[in-house]
Amino acid sequence: MQIKNEPTYITGVNKNQSFKCLPQILPMNKVFTNADEAISDIQDGTVIMLGGFGLCGIPENCILALVKKRIKHLTCISNNAGIDDFGLGLLLKTRQIKKMISSYVGENAEFERQLLSGELEVDLVPQGTLATRIQMAGMGIPAFFTPAGYGTEIAEQKEIREFNGKQYLMEHALHASFALIKAWKGDTMGNLVFRKTTRNLSTSMAKAAEITIAEVETLVKPGELDPDAVHVAGVYVHRIFQGTNYEKRIERKTIKL
């Protein structure tokens, strides 16, 4: 579990006068044993972001822990909804998701069934808009204007303004209580390194949530990562653990004959 550090005061005597210096805060221990411990305080009705792109770089261990914990009424922000038997598809199968905020959901038949039957609330967002809404939350920008979606159902009940003769609609930044992301490597201070497409959305999500939980394939000591290779600084990561048994499934394989 996470260790709470109490301030340490230094006392002594200088020129026959006693003193007590300002508190020195010890470094926070961010390392957790596994996903079950890391997500233990996520409750029913929580808004969470889940990193990755398709099935690439998704937080597999955290998703399985959420399934085991059986929390419900979740609002999940992700570029995709997984597939029927993997990723967020596992949480859809157990009816633990109340609402999905996504940009691509075409590979999940259970998602389609729940959407058409009215069992699942869905907010479909253009992919660039979704990425920018998350990025703006991390930057502290409350809203922005984009031409994407103007003239479609997406623009309904949204403020529209004209800039340089072109119509734009206002989109709000997208926040969450928790961000669950997966990285290739990380150190015990929370610094993260991703590989290729796994960076998509994850780096922005780490900055947009109140609490960021990172699972990594390899956890190392501080100083073992090349500073120039770090994609997310440890200041944005609150909890980290080394994951296990990654499947790394391929969503759709195309073979050229």
Topology:
Blueprint lengths: L10 E4 L2 E4 L14 H4 L8 E4 L9 H10 L4 E4 L10 H6 L3 E6 L6 H9 L3 E4 L2 H13 L3 E4 L13 E4 L2 E7 L3 E12 L4 E2 L8 H7 E12 L18 E4 L15
Parallel strand pairs: 3-4, 3-10, 4-5, 5-6, 10-12, 12-13
Antiparallel strand pairs: 1-2, 7-9, 8-9, 10-11
Helix pairs in contact: 5-6
Please describe what this structure looks like:
This protein is an alpha/beta fold and 257 residues long. It has a single domain, classed as Glutaconate Coenzyme A-transferase. It contains six helices and 13 strands. Strands 3, 4, 5, 6, 10, 11, 12 and 13 form an eight-stranded mixed sheet that branches. It has a three-stranded antiparallel sheet with strand order 7-9-8. It has a two-stranded antiparallel sheet with strand order 1-2. The longest helix has 13 residues. The termini are far apart.
